[in-house]
Amino acid sequence: MSTIEKKLLETRSNMQALQTAKPAVIKAVLKDIADALVAQSGKILTANRKDLAKMNPQNSLYDRLLLNEARLSGIAGSIQKVIRLKDPTNQTLTQRQLENGLQLKKITTPLGVVAAIFESRPNVVADIATLCLKSRNACVLKGSKDAAHTNKAIVNIIHQSLEKNGLPKSLVYLLPPERSVVDILFQATRTIDVIIPRGSNGLIEYVRSHSRVPVIETGAGVCHVYIHKDADIQMGIDIAVNAKTQRPSVCNAMDTLLVDEAIAKKFLTSLRQPFEEKQVVMHGDTKSMALLKEYPLIKKANADTYATEFLSLACAVKVVKNIEEALVHIEKYGTRHSEAIVTRNKKAAEKFLNTVDAAAVYHNASTRFTDGEEFGLGAEVGISTQKLHARGPFALEKLVTEKWMLRGSGQIR
Amino acid sequence: MSTIEKKLLETRSNMQALQTAKPAVIKAVLKDIADALVAQSGKILTANRKDLAKMNPQNSLYDRLLLNEARLSGIAGSIQKVIRLKDPTNQTLTQRQLENGLQLKKITTPLGVVAAIFESRPNVVADIATLCLKSRNACVLKGSKDAAHTNKAIVNIIHQSLEKNGLPKSLVYLLPPERSVVDILFQATRTIDVIIPRGSNGLIEYVRSHSRVPVIETGAGVCHVYIHKDADIQMGIDIAVNAKTQRPSVCNAMDTLLVDEAIAKKFLTSLRQPFEEKQVVMHGDTKSMALLKEYPLIKKANADTYATEFLSLACAVKVVKNIEEALVHIEKYGTRHSEAIVTRNKKAAEKFLNTVDAAAVYHNASTRFTDGEEFGLGAEVGISTQKLHARGPFALEKLVTEKWMLRGSGQIR
């Protein structure tokens, strides 16, 4: 057995300490972590500068890796919010007496040991560890080499806080940053209950295709805003501009704008100025190209355009005949993340809400709301685009499994 | 695009017809299937005899493949029970107004297209298809070559019933029985939402390691009955005998009997006669071997014994020092299926129920109760030993996913 396998077993064997800890103890651990992130910011920032020194500041990951006092306070603030969330474990889901007298009860329990594999952002260490501790899951963290010193400094603080409150520090285990260790995780079906990849599509796809341990995917979003013929034009403009430009780098931003033929001219004409102000590049089909020929940032859509998650100030545009064509397009190209219709027509809205197969469907609102905090669930591990276990914001309430308990008096079949 | 991929797309594109069908229509389809299985039993039995003619009657699969009037009536009876279950879709899970006025609602919706891959038993075709239709999921069925004629005859009846009630027959699509078609399923992430393998561990493992489509596993059970020092001896005997012998071929049967040292002599001595009557082979550790030396069917346990799912009239036996050793043993060897403690000591019972990591944990009852029907959930697809989505009996209520619906009046972030 390798050192890492031994450490994983140690983490697993201590799971019980967390599952039976008093709520006040868990609260104290989380509070101590939040306080220490601010009080010991010097140590963390020193470690962070070591990591940054190895990276070219022109690298797009540089800003993601960078910590400062303000960002540490932000992380501490998020932990304070997690403290206030309800413990999702030990909730009774079902309770009844069977005819044979067996007392049947189904409760929520922690998943057990949760492993997270993530890329440069150091806030992920604190986010995942605190969500896991709050839900009484032990966790195993695998960060990137780029952030190795920073991650270690943050985990040191988590370890201090665990030990200060009488819990074993192995409950949060930071793996060495070498890529090869993930192969051990992928085979660890007896010690790890679920693996959560957080980062690029490449990472998620790699984990999904190699792991024997179940994976919870937080996938890409190719999100549509559909302007129906009965839309309030100004509302449609506001929603399209918000969904595309308020934070273009995230998964719930708009990627494709679908516009009904009947109002395409009026709508696209009105959209020109606000989109030009924000410098949005539009990739159009033939019909929208014709209507937008004077728009300076128009490009011709190609075969890949409608399957693209842009993550930038660019989007696809398509003129559709009617709601049926819009629904077919979304079924073909959507990634089942977030989809919106803008219309004053209630029947069309209900048809859209019921037919579209996605984690979150909107009527007259921006797709940007798909988020654990916005939905009132607190911090999230990511947005799940899978259909099993968790769909949409994957928040604290889903870091649990179920357990059937049966209390009898000698029942046999 | 291959013919099979086109057929899968056709199945998917008709999903909506099922999702919007009136409850009475779905009920009529199921009733017609149940009636026709009996009324047209001749056709099915003729097809079944064609399949049986190709198999050696000595093959252990022969009896599984065999249909007769009584078995068809049994299948029809199961369908009648499914009809009476509650539609698990369109249930409201969460509903509230967010501060910004957005009306948030989380509902259950069908998974979409469910694929099942299974071995010889022809009842699986009817079971899975009717559970899927009841939960408004389209389904794709891949049976074995051995049962090809029988499966086709049953699916013909399902198709008749769908068409008679105005629904497209492509909602239930029987794939050709060639093994190579499963590779198309494994890659069909856009058309299939979940794959359920039903059969041997080999099949389940093959699907799990090759499928890019999410898999719901119904795994093996290495189940323990632990006789605590404060057990009622007679109750312990009754439970051990029932858990091992009432139906030894199933996953929730007992595989290992753990006995506290303090009562090992008394308990094992009392167990001899009932186990010998049922001809149960016991594989013992050194301590239990010493106590059972006069038992004619005793064998010495080896390195694999405690990880074995026997599925026959055989089990492992081990004498443990105390509950702690029992818990460590179960954590090491259990497959997180069903585990039982027999004791009059409430504290020990609660410790066991809370600590053991398994789908179903029992105090003073047989592990044989882990079953959808027994738990009052109706027919099941299998017993899930995974922690995500469904744990324990995987019944109708879990053949759904969730969808967030947000109704607004122009909300943007």
Biggest sheet character of chain A:
7 strands, parallel
Q: On the 0-100 scale, what is the average pLDDT of chain A? A: 95
Number of domains of chain A: 2
Rough outline of chain A: globular
Please name the fourth-level CATH homologous superfamily of the largest domain in chain A.
Answer: Aldehyde Dehydrogenase, Chain A, domain 1
For the record, the CATH class of the largest domain in chain A is: Alpha Beta
Name the quaternary structure: homodimer
Terminal-residue CA separation of chain A: 42 Å
Q: Percent range for helical residues of chain A?
A: 40-55%
**CATH architecture group name of the largest domain in chain A:** 3-Layer(aba) Sandwich
* Helix-strand makeup class of chain A: alpha/beta
Number of helices of chain A: 14
The helix/strand order of chain A is HHHHHEEEHEHEHEHEHEHEHEEHEHEEEE
Q: What is the number of strand segments of chain A?
A: 16
CATH topology of the largest domain in chain A: Aldehyde Dehydrogenase, Chain A, domain 1
Beta content of chain A: 15-25%
Which chains make the largest contact? A-B, 65 and 64 residues
Uncertain regions spanning at least 5 consecutive residues of chain A:
none
Can you offer a commentary on this structure?
Two copies of one chain form a homodimer. Chain A is α/β, with parallel strands linked by helices and 413 residues long. Chain A has two domains: 3-219 and 390-407, Aldehyde Dehydrogenase, Chain A, domain 1; 223-369, Aldehyde Dehydrogenase, Chain A, domain 2 (3-Layer(aba) Sandwich). Chain A has 14 helices and 16 strands. In chain A, the strands form four sheets. Chain A has a seven-stranded parallel β-sheet with strand order 10-9-11-8-7-12-13, with helices on both faces. A four-stranded parallel β-sheet of chain A has the order 5-4-3-6, with helices on both faces. In chain A, strands 1-2-16 form a three-stranded antiparallel β-sheet, with no helix packed on it. In chain A, helix 2 (23-39) packs antiparallel against helix 5 (69-84), helix 3 (41-53) packs antiparallel against helix 7 and helix 10 crosses helix 11. In chain A, 51% of the residues are buried. Chains A and B meet through helix 10, helix 14, strand 13 and strand 16 of A and helix 10, helix 14, strand 13 and strand 16 of B.
